[in-house]
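Subject: Protein record for review, amino acid sequence with backbone structure tokens
Category: Structural biology, sequence-to-fold work with a learned token vocabulary.
Format: Residues in single-letter code; tokens as whole numbers, each standing for a residue.
Body of memo: The sequence and its backbone structure tokens, given next.
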Amino acid sequence: MLDLIRRFAGANWTPSRIELPGPPLTAKAAVENVFRCDLSRGELAAIIFPAALLEIPNPRPPDRQEGAGCALPDAQDIVACVEHLIGLGLLEGRPNIDWLYRRLQIPRRSLQRDLGSSGASFEAILRCVLIIRASELLRTGSDVTQTGFELGYTDSAHFSRAFRRWTGQTPRLARVNFSIAP
């Protein structure tokens, strides 16, 4: 939901407050640091923001390569379908293979066999999607902690180590490089 609001309000926008149901969090300060706002208890989960944000016009869609469009992948292309579903799953947290085979409504072993016959694996596709999404977030100015959290990491150090393993550079350096690139 925060990603949706930030799409309209800007990548660095922060909510006034977030309300969560349930018992008080033991790591409240850490969660507040990630969301960059106060966290309080409420009956429902809520992101509190000024009503003026409701008046912001829909930003233009991101530039895409010619012919790429926003179409769904071909249902026969299992790798493209898995990439697409993983990308959607990141909106809810880090998807795993169990989530994926339930979503596709096929047995786990069949999914693994289909991916293997295409020369791919769930782990390799997940890593590729994570690298692309991390690069997109860092390019738009998201900080390292927030980027890691949005990719399902609970600790920015774990995200930083994974990003360095994937790309050979730290996310902070990548962010700087993105900001000075033409």
In short: The mean pLDDT is 82.
